[in-house]
Design goal:
Length: 334
């Protein structure tokens, strides 16, 4: 099943809104048809579609329809309902199944009016991780890409994974009351196991960022074994899920909180308040102050992680010198 919806294809959204505004009672098919200017057949067809998308709608002869519960899917109109952001999520694309939200967002980049657009999928068949790794993306996770066109210098590109990881950690603390940690450059962990990863694809023009696609993979409600089976053999740190299979935490509400935090931090970068962000990141870091082993593009190095600089680079004290690293995988030394 490959279903796609956008936040500007508003037929289903209008039916949902009407049903939600009649929560206390039934609304007749005739009234829906009159209010929305649809035929009775179109009303019925849309109700059927909404039920197939997981909305619980009671239908009673002579009374009409009543929304009992909303869907658990992160459909565009559910994500935008009450979302307190100005830029991020202005347009929302949703796919039931896609190869990679990142690839789709990259295609959007050349179009106008897409700054802040987000692409969400319930499942990815070819999710991409950092350093050309596979990213296993079963149902239950939040697989998301955000397209941004910031007017920044190239050196600031590496700030974005950091910023995104920090926003995610804050949303997890606020909404789920958990204590996540940040592992440089871009992992969010819980008890040292990965719960989210971030991938940034950037296009650069004359030393300025032309656009950025920030891909975020959140193991929201997944079976860790599904993921670890798929990455067997490759180097990995272990994965876990943010909420248990039976938990009724709403992924849409969580996603909204994350997007709001991210926009708040993004505005701080625009206002050049980098110090505050760096401090907040370091406070949650499981890397800084530790003896680490880092696999870099040129090989393995060991040293002590002493901090990050204003561009998000990791500062490692090694053999009496401070080295500045922009990419790599960090392992704690035992
Ligand atoms: C990592 O390797 O830690 C980064 C993983 C990023 C995965 C996300 S899921 C949504 C987006 N689409 C992709 O294909 N990848 C990113």
């Amino acid at each position: 099943m490959r279903q796609a919806f956008t936040s500007f294809d508003d037929t289903l959204e209008r039916v949902v809104r009407l049903l939600k505004s009649h929560k206390s009672g039934y609304i007749s098919g005739e009234e829906i048809s009159r209010s929305l200017g649809f035929s009775r057949a179109a009303v019925w067809k849309n109700i059927k579609k909404l039920k197939s998308l997981g909305y619980k709608i009671s239908s009673r002869q002579n009374l009409g329809y009543k929304m009992i519960a909303k869907t658990g899917l992160m459909l565009p109109w559910e994500v935008s309902d009450g979302l307190q952001t100005e830029t991020i999520g202005r347009k929302i694309y949703y796919f039931d199944t896609i190869d990679s939200t990142q690839n789709f967002a990259l295609k959007l980049a050349s179009r106008p009016y897409e700054n802040g657009s987000i692409v969400i999928a319930s499942r990815q068949t070819h999710g991409r991780g950092r350093q050309d790794r596979r990213w296993i993306s079963p149902r239950g996770g939040i697989w998301l890409s955000i397209l941004l066109k910031p007017n920044f210098e190239v050196s600031q590109t590496s700030l974005f994974p950091m910023l995104t990881a920090l926003a995610l950690a804050i949303a997890i603390e606020k909404k789920l009351k958990l204590k996540p940690e940040l592992r440089w450059p871009n992992d969010v962990t819980l008890n040292n196991k990965k719960i989210a990863g971030i991938l940034v694809d950037a296009s650069i023009e004359s030393n300025k960022i032309d656009y950025l696609v920030i891909g975020i993979g959140i193991n929201f409600r997944i079976k860790p074994s599904t993921i670890s089976k798929g990455i067997k053999g490759s180097k990995n740190y272990g994965v876990t899920t943010l909420v248990g299979e039976k938990s009724n935490e709403d992924s849409t509400v969580f996603l909204q909180s994350f997007l709001e935090e991210l926009e708040r931090l993004y505005n701080n970068v625009i206002a050049n308040n980098l110090h505050g962000i760096k401090k907040e990141w370091e406070k949650r870091s499981s890397t800084i102050g530790k003896n680490v082993k880092i696999s870099t593009t040129t090989g393995m190095m060991t040293g002590k992680a002493v901090g990050i600089d204003d561009d998000g680079a990791l500062l490692v004290s090694s053999k009496g010198k401070i080295q500045r690293l922009l990419v790599g995988d960090v392992y704690l030394q035992s």
